[in-house]
Amino acid sequence: MPSTHHTTCNLCEAMCGLSVTVEDNKVTSLRGDSEDAFSAGHICPKAFALRETFDDPDRLRQPMRRTTSGFVAISWEEAFDEVARNLLHIRRRDGKHAIGLYAGNPMVHNLHALLGYAGFTRALGTRNRFDANSQDANPRLLTSLLLYGENTTIPVPDVDRTSYLLMLGANPAASGGSLMTMGDVKHRLRGITERGGKLVLIDPRRSETSEYASEHHFIRPGGDAALLLAILHVLCQEQKVRWANVREVAIGAERIESLVKDFPPAAVADATGIPAETIVRIAREFAAAPRAVAYGRIGTCQQEFGTVANWLIDVLNLFTGNLDREGGSMFPSPAFDLGSVGRKVAGTSYARWRSRVRSLPEVAGNLPASALAEEIDTAGPGQIRALVCLLGNPVMSVPNSARLDRALSSLEFMVSLDYYINETSRHAHIILPGRHALERSHYDLVFHSLQVRNTAKYSLPVIQPHPDSRTDFDILYELSMRLGGLRTGFPVVDRALALGHRIGLRITPEHILDLMLRTGRYGDRFLPGRHGLSLRKLKEAPHGIDLGPLRPCLSERIQTKDRKIQLAPQLLIDDVARVKTWLQQNSRASDRGLLLIGRRQLRTNNSWMHNCPSLIKGPDRSALIMHSQDASALNLQAGQTVQVDSRVGSITVTLAVSDEVMPGVVSLPHGFGHQHVKDTLRVAGSLQGANVNLITDDHFLDPLSGTASLNGVPVRVRSAAS
Ligand SMILES: Nc1nc2c(c(=O)[nH]1)N[C@H]1C(S)=C(S)[C@@H](COP(=O)(O)OP(=O)(O)OC[C@H]3O[C@@H](n4cnc5c(=O)[nH]c(N)nc54)[C@H](O)[C@@H]3O)O[C@H]1N2
Ligand SMILES: Nc1nc2c(c(=O)[nH]1)N[C@H]1C(S)=C(S)[C@@H](COP(=O)(O)OP(=O)(O)OC[C@H]3O[C@@H](n4cnc5c(=O)[nH]c(N)nc54)[C@H](O)[C@@H]3O)O[C@H]1N2
Ligand code: SF4
Ligand SMILES: [Mo]
To answer: How far apart are the CA of 296 and the centre of ligand 2, in A?
Structure first.
């Protein structure tokens, strides 16, 4: 008998509700859940990857050991023993920091991995922790920490009620929306202009999102901080700042007023590529709009001024009275308080330790992944000798990946939690494949905290898991126990864990989730008869529960000592000097070479999912896009093979010519180039394209947050034949 299950797609941040029909424990159909409390039936083509990855014969179902004749399947017990024995040996010999840890992007989409991670990091005790945030959101996390006292206090644009959205460096029409979980993206974006509002897009590429924008402006990669300083200059000069409102909630605003004096629009126009009169107009329109919001994403993070740009976005929202206000930039009120977990796992300060070789600061408990290779291949005390790689493929996703590839092959021991043998896990001695998303329960700890409308949803597994399978939580729990015990930092949970372990009762993610929901802001607080949230309540609502539109809540969320926004941290003020230097260096058009930017596409997802036949079909998506002016200046033609060189390496790709990119800018997607693993990723391995991170630069960073500047990389392009 077929049965229908309701769950949430966990492949991107959009949290689309799914209705999945299952017969004989096999998915027979998968579609959008029109009754979902948040996404109302919308899905994208990637949703089908859930089914395809589940059925994929290349996906691992058992632990694997690397031998001289390839990978062989082993039992879970053997695998756990071998991992623990090796890690304990290296830790005893070289100390706890000799074990490195990389936590990849799918961690934040996986309830089980995330809840297991909190305890596992404590059990390992290493400071050599790295994560995907240093290629992604650290400028945003650091800004939130400095301004509001907590990394996870992240404002999102209230897209449903705004009348003016200034969007910098984001492409939600392809990405599904990021640090802005919005579901049904296109409908919501279209809504802005349909109700008479404006969407202004700032991007060096006329992206898929430009279709929904009222206007699009090219910007020279890295130019956002300068642009924002000029917009603020206009607001200050034309007395459009809501000072009374600003002073009530923030300290340090006057320092910004004096800082922006040096950035009149005319001084940034040439370098950013945006005319002064356009900057003045945007500033005036933003200030005059009944409800306006500035929002920036990857384009404002993976760049050399990431933290300054993210800070100035918040300043702009606050100065115009739009921070923590309906239709502006708002803080979600999630049912599970991620901040309380974040405080334990990530801490509440910054640069508590630095990397050994380059002295780069930790952010939210993690060092920049750009430093991972050098921490492995540079000999000396504190060198990483073993690596635990959790749900990540850093060989494909970290800059200067050839160096990392070599470094991984030199490790004494490596274990990957992954269900594919890919560019990274092929170096592992042991691979531990957790249960697939369809075989595990789901609650979006992270993305319910970044929603443009508050909801909560829990889903049971869709497919009955094989009895000999383990969730990523089970795996991390088991390893934590063998490495010295599980401690989450929450006394109640730790006591329960210890007691449970003694009497043979295992604490599950569901226990933790229930506890956090019941003690959270909508929780029943364990009081009988109270109508609050609990896991049971969520189980009774398989389409999720709507908790209403965003509401002002900054006073509740802010964690600074004086409960005021610290608007002008010295660190950020000082970093503006670099923006001035950048303006000087970029003000003359003749001095500029080509700058490389990335390109996300609807049918690809980071380094994986290229093994799904339905996603890779159609035209090649791996080409380098160049503006026609640059192509003719370089005497290059569309379709020819070109060599792209940077400071760190060279790749060969196909050229596409299109005026969708700004002159002087070229664009390549990441996650391509699977030729090395064509035997274990048989569909992906047949694709053309090269790994762009062979030419991105591990020394090109936003120095404050250590975030890789994967956009704006200087490159040269020439015919591959020459
Ligand atoms: N040039 C360039 N590089 C980039 C970017 C860019 O824009 N340009 N973007 C960066 C960004 S924003 C990010 S977040 C990183 C992402 O880069 P990574 O952190 O490396 O993450 P993914 O590429 O998504 O790799 C995910 C891995 O997890 C495995 N996996 C997926 N789901 C599960 C699961 O549920 N359980 C287990 N056990 N394994 C799972 C997959 O098989 C895959 O190997 O890439 C960054 N790299
Ligand atoms: N289909 C799909 N969806 C995804 C992913 C995926 O790989 N595929 N990845 C997921 C992940 S890990 C993330 S982090 C999110 C990212 O979500 P988004 O940030 O919405 O997605 P991107 O396409 O990376 O958008 C970044 C935009 O910034 C532009 N840009 C580059 N440099 C600059 C600059 O200096 N200034 C400005 N203003 N713009 C610039 C790029 O041209 C690009 O259009 O997407 C998630 N969703
Ligand atoms: S938009 Fe994201 S969450 Fe929705 S179906 Fe596509 S991949 Fe899944
Ligand atoms: Mo990301």
So the answer is: 10
How far is the C-alpha of 155 from the C-alpha of 143, rounded, in Å? 11
Task: Find the length of the chain.
Answer: 722
Question: CB within 6 Å of ligand 3 — which residues?
Answer: 9, 11-12, 14-16, 43-44, 46-47, 176
Q: Whose CA is nearest to atom 47 of ligand 2?
A: 175
Does 10 contact ligand 2 (Cβ within 6 A)? Answer: no
Supply the pLDDT for residue 252: 97
DSSP category for residue 535: H
pLDDT in tens, 242-275: 999 999 999 999 999 999 999 999 999 999 999 9
Q: 60, 107, 388, 397: which to mutate for ligand 1, most atoms within 8 A of CB? A: 397
Burial grade of 578 (CB within 10 A; 0-12, 13-18, 19 or more): middle
| Cα–Cα distances in angstroms (integers) from residue 276 to residues 202, 233, 310, 588, in the given order | 14, 12, 22, 16
The answer to whether 533 touches 335, Cβ cutoff 8 Å, is yes
Closest to 432 (Cα-Cα) out of 52, 76, 10, 101 = 76
| C-alpha span between 67 and 84 (Å, rounded) | 18
Distances (CA, A) of 345 to 137, 364, 366, 448, 506: 17, 8, 10, 18, 22
And the tokens for 30? 């998968």
- Is residue 182 a contact partner of residue 212, using CB atoms and an 8 Å limit? no
Longest Cα separation, the chain:
78
Question: How many whole angstroms separate alpha carbon 44 and alpha carbon 660?
Answer: 23
AA identity, residue 322: N
The DSSP call for residue 160 is T
Ligand 1 mean position, distance from CA 611 (Å): 14
- pLDDT above 90 covers a percentage of the chain that reads 92
Task: For residue 470, give the ligand nearest its CA.
Answer: 1
CA separation for the pair 100, 408 (Å, rounded):
11
Dist. CA 516 → ligand 1 center (Å):
28
Give the C-alpha separation, 508 to 116, whole Å. Answer: 10
Phi, psi of 107 (to 5 degrees): -50, -45
Question: Is 607 near ligand 2, meaning CB less than 6 Å away?
Answer: no
**Closest ligand to Cα 177:** 2
523: DSSP letter: B
How many Cβ atoms from other residues are within 10 Å of residue 169's Cβ? 26
With a CB cutoff of 8 Å and minimum separation 6, the contacts of 217 are: 200, 201, 202, 203, 273, 274, 278
178 CA distance to ligand 4 centroid (A)? Answer: 8
Q: Please give all residues whose beta carbon lies within 6 A of any atom in ligand 1, as ranges.
A: 104-106, 110, 132, 135-136, 298, 302, 391-394, 396-397, 417-420, 422, 434, 437, 472, 598, 606-608, 670, 692-693, 696, 710
| Residue 623, phi-psi category: left (phi > 0), alpha (psi -120 to 50), beta (remainder) | beta
Which ligand 1 atom sits closest to the C-alpha of 420? 42
Percentage with pLDDT > 70 across the chain: 99
- State the Cα–Cα distance between residues 44 and 59, nearest whole angstrom: 22
Identify the residue with better confidence: 344 or 661.
661
Structural domains in the chain plus CATH codes:
158-325+560-572 (3.40.228.10), 593-719 (2.40.40.20)
Q: Cβ of 131: how many Cβ atoms within 10 Å? A: 28
d(CA 469, CA 439) in angstroms, rounded, equals 9
